[in-house]
Amino acid sequence: MTIDFNPALNNVSGPARVSRPQLVPLSEAHEMGLVSAPSPEQISQLQAYYGDVLASCDCVRGLGGRCYRFEDAGAGQAIENLQRQNPQGPLTAEQLLHLIQSATEDLDNSAAGAEFNDLQKFVQSNWNRMDDKARQVWQVYYEKVMESRSQGKSGIDNQQYEQMLQEMKEIAGCEDDNQFKDASAGAAIKALDQENPEGVISGEQMRRLIYDATSDADSQAAGKEFDDLAKFVKKNYGRLSAEAKEMWDIYARTVEDLRSQGQSGIPSDRYEQMFDEMREIEESNDEASENYEDAGAGDAIESLQRRNPEGQISGVQMRRLVLDATKDKDGQAAGAEYEDLKRFVDANRDRLSDEALAIWQVYSRTVERARSQGQSFIDDQSYQQMQEEMKDVLE
């Protein structure tokens, strides 16, 4: 099947653009009532001019805080970065590849949704700046999005996403940027990718990843090995369980301290201390697990309690709690996971900020809708909608 992916073909020719010097006197004259009503042509010219002005603004005043130019913040940032680097020149395949990757790598499940919509608008407006290979890169992404959308998905599966990037790199003639600075770190990351290519990364897996990457004697645990692991974690942060995030935070804090002292390695005593802290978290969660119906929800609650044992719970903390507890897709986001979270919230309601309470209400409403249909899970579309509503609360 041939897909017409050229967005420029969908453009409808509009009225000719006119300059500000031509329009300002006309606009002022109309406001003062000095001339007769504008003709249809003049109205079209005014609409075209002010349409360009509004398109260049991040937010239209008077229409509320949600009236932004971009649907997705990450995609918007990627587009603005490219525009700063190359405001008017030809767009190469490598530039478009990096644009698409930067806009879609955050794992918010919108690579075929809001992120694509923003990129489509940019490409539609800049089609004539793109060279032939850049257009081929866009075709690869476009067809992958259409395939995902035909299956009712707003995201692109990890395996399909990696395949898509590889096709783009081959078109652009880029070297594979998945090379590692350190061999042992690279081997550890590849082993984890093979063991768990798409699922939630557990605390045990994170601890083992860090150990396997850093246990050799090359004094790079706070150097190249950390750099490789940090790149992996940044790309896969949405997959980390609450316990895995704690493991990573312990390692990252240790590295930050040692790098401030000019060291690229971790002394043996600090190394053992770091892993002792990780094991203590695992043991604590294991002991507490009998208090919870769901292990993932229990880990998320225990993690929050360690970070904030008595203080007020913010909206950001509540959102992280809910998502960490429910991201494992075990079919319990409206079942056992909800019950564990509800008991925690009921026992700590006086600690919830207004935003935290609003976040909890978003989750509760989503659960109620799922349960009304006899489900103990939250389907992907509803889960994504819930995340968007939580973002709205925090804006």
List its traits:
single chain, globular, 63% helix
Furnish the topology, listing elements before pairings.
Layout: H1 20-31, H2 40-55, H3 73-85, H4 93-104, H5 114-126, H6 132-150, H7 158-172, H8 183-195, H9 203-214, H10 224-236, H11 242-259, H12 268-288, H13 295-307, H14 315-326, H15 336-347, H16 354-372, H17 380-394
Helix pairs in contact: 3-4, 3-5, 4-6, 4-7, 6-7, 8-9, 8-10, 9-11, 11-12, 13-14, 13-15, 14-16, 16-17
Describe the structure.
This protein is mainly alpha-helical. The protein has four domains: 9-69, no CATH class; 73-172; 183-290; 305-394, no CATH class. It has helices at residues 20-31, 40-55, 73-85, 93-104, 114-126, 132-150, 158-172, 183-195, 203-214, 224-236, 242-259, 268-288, 295-307, 315-326, 336-347, 354-372, 380-394. The longest helix has 21 residues, at 268-288. The two termini are 43 Å apart. Residues 9-36 and 52-68 have low confidence and may be disordered.
